[in-house]
């Protein structure tokens, strides 16, 4: 991935396998940053722009009724990301805001690279093209045991009366490769990644993340 150019804001991404608590922890971090009077922008992938949300529907819910080929899947995630970087993330960083993003480029390397089996370096190159230098300052990886992660997302879908989405429905072995892939990426880029145990209590993780963000990014 290309290195970030000098930017005024801070860019933090949450990553990890399904059901690790990314969205909850992102919200808790944002609350604390805002208590400090900082401008914080929350966004998510795929999505975060009208174009990106339309792509999210295609990717998650079979809205076209057509089977999505694996290569198309990679490029749709990348297209959503390019739009998000250009229209939302880059302008926010340039004006000095903090950007907290729920999944970003590492998701493509983990899911489409490690999960689907595409060449890892090729995924990194496609990401690099899509993000055009907007590399996160810090990536918080919420690692979680597969059974616990799926117990949580199944419960969430039950509450919302929604089905598991297209990628959540993938085989267990796919999700195991994704989890391991994230750990590999964290080992490859130790200066950017910090790993948190998603099995711990929500408050414990939130406190550890806050300590990490204040230390690494000077909130
Ligand atoms: P979520 O953010 O609500 O968990 O849903 C996003 C889903 O899309 C999740 O299953 C992970 C998957 N995904 C990829 O496969 N590749 C990507 O690049 C991104 C951003 C998400």
Describe the SSE topology.
Blueprint: E1 10-15, H1 22-35, E2 40-44, H2 50-61, H3 70-94, E3 98-102, H4 105-115, H5 120-131, E4 138-143, H6 146-160, H7 172-188, E5 193-197, H8 202-217
Parallel strand pairs: 1-3, 1-4, 2-3, 4-5
Helix pairs in contact: 1-8, 2-3, 3-5, 4-5, 4-7
This protein binds thymidine-5'-phosphate (TMP).
Task: Summarize the entry for a quick read.
The chain has a single domain, classed as 3-Layer(aba) Sandwich (Rossmann fold), CATH 3.40.50.300. It has 8 helices and 5 strands. The protein has helices at 22-35, 50-61, 70-94, 105-115, 120-131, 146-160, 172-188, 202-217, and strands at 10-15, 40-44, 98-102, 138-143, 193-197.
Any overview of this molecule?
The chain is of the alpha/beta class. It has one domain (12-217): 3-Layer(aba) Sandwich (Rossmann fold). Helices cover 56% and strands 12% of the residues. It contains eight helices and five strands. The chain has helices at residues 22-35, 50-61, 70-94, 105-115, 120-131, 146-160, 172-188, 202-217; strands at 10-15, 40-44, 98-102, 138-143, 193-197. The chain has a five-stranded parallel β-sheet with strand order 2-3-1-4-5, with helices on both faces. Helix 3 packs parallel to helix 5 (120-131), helix 4 (105-115) packs antiparallel against helix 5 (120-131) and helix 4 packs across helix 7 (172-188). Mean pLDDT is 95; it is low at 1-5. Bound molecules: thymidine-5'-phosphate.
């Amino acid at each position: 991935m290309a290195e970030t150019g000098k930017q005024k804001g801070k860019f933090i991404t949450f990553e990890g396998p399904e059901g690790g608590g990314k969205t909850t922890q992102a919200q808790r971090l944002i609350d604390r940053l805002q208590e400090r009077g900082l401008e914080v922008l929350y966004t998510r992938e795929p999505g975060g722009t009208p174009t990106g949300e339309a792509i999210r529907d295609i990717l998650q819910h079979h809205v076209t009724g057509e089977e999505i080929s694996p290569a198309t899947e990679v490029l749709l995630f990348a297209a959503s990301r390019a739009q998000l970087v250009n229209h939302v993330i880059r302008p926010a960083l340039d004006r000095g805001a903090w950007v907290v993003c729920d999944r970003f480029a590492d998701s493509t390397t983990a899911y489409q690279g490690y999960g689907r089996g595409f060449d890892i370096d090729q995924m990194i190159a496609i990401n690099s093209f899509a993000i055009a230098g907007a590399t996160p300052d810090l990536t918080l990886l919420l690692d979680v045991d597969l059974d616990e992660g799926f117990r949580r997302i199944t419960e969430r879908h039950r509450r919302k009366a929604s089905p598991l989405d297209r990628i959540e429905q993938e085989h267990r072995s796919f999700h195991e490769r994704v989890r391991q892939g994230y750990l590999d990426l964290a080992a490859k880029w130790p200066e950017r990644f910090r790993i948190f145990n998603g099995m711990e209590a929500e408050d414990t993780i939130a406190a550890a993340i806050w300590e990490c963000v204040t230390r690494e990014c000077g909130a």
